[in-house]
Amino acid sequence: MSETRQRAVRRAIRRLLVSLGIAAVLTLLSLFWSRKRLNRTPETTTGTTIGTTTPLPVPVVPIGTPPLPVPDRRQAEHCCSSASAATSAAPTEEAPAASRKRWQAAALLTQTPFGARQHEGGASSESHSPETKKKFAAFVSHMKAEASMEARFVQGELETAFGQRIFLDSDDLRTLSDLTTHVRESDVLVLVQSKSVLTRPYCLLELLTACQHGVPIVGVCLSKHSFPYDFNEAHAFLSDLDETLATAAPGAHELLREHGIHDLAEAAYLLSCCIPKIISVHLDTCASRNMLKATIADLVATINL
Question: Whole-model pTM above 0.90?
Answer without folding.
Answer: no
